[in-house]
Amino acid sequence: xxxxxxxxxxxxxxxxxxxxxxxxxxxxxxxxxxxxxxxxxxxxxxxxxxxxxxxxxxxxxxxx
Length: 64
Fold this sequence. Notes:
The protein is mostly helical.
C-alpha cells in the first residue's frame, strides 16, 4: 500500500512563501522609490496646479 506523498503541499507552500517574499520586496522597493522621489513629485504636482489655475484665469479674462 502506498501513502500519498507530501511533496504536493510542500511545493504549494514553498511557492506561496516565495510569492510572499517577492511581493514584500517589491512593495518595499516601491515605497523607497516613492520616498526618494517625493520632493520631485510634489514640485511637479504643484507646478501643474499653478499652470492649470493660470490657464483658467487667462481663459476667463478672454471671455472664453
